[in-house]
Task: structure prediction
Amino acid sequence: MAEDRIRVWTKQHENVWKILKEKGRFIQQERYVSGDLGEHAELMRESIRWLAQNSPDLKNKPADVTYPIWVSFLKDATMMKEPGTVILELELDLGIITHVNIEKWGTILNYSYIPADAADAARHHALLAAYGVSDTKAYMTQFYPEIKREIRDSWKRLFDPSILIGSDLDYGIIWELRKEWVREVEE
Result:
C-alpha cells in the first residue's frame, strides 16, 4: 500500500454492500442517518447537518451528497457487527478523509461547548453559572441565543487537532463509498 493511502473500516447496513456491488457507489441518505434513534433522530440529524456543512473538506463534497459516512482508523474501534450489517475494509487516499476527534464529537452531540483551553472552559462555566443553565438547556431553549451562538461557534474546534478534551481517538468522515475502495467484506 502506498504511503498516501490508508486502510479504514466502516460498519454499514448489508444493503449498502448490495448497492455498492450493483451501482459501484453509495452515498448516505437522510433516512439512514439516525433511523434507529426514534424521538431523538432530529437532534442527531441537526448535529450531522452541522458536521456536513462545516467540514474543512467541503470543496471535495460531490454535489449530490448531503451527509458524510463514518470510518474507523482501527478495525478494533469499528462498531461491533450485528445481524443485518457488514464491516467494509476500505483502502483510500489519505486526502479524502477528514479526522474527527470522538470526544469533541460527543461534546457536539450533547449540545455542549468545546473550550479552546482551560481558561476558556472556566470562563464558559462561569457564564453558565451566572445564568443558572447548562449548555444543553441554553442550546435547546430560545431564551439564551448568545450562549447558543457561543456553543455553536465553539464547534469549529472539532477540526483543530491542537485542541483536545479527553481522548485523542479519531474517527474519520468521507463523502461517499466506492466499490473499488473495498478490500474485504465481513458479512
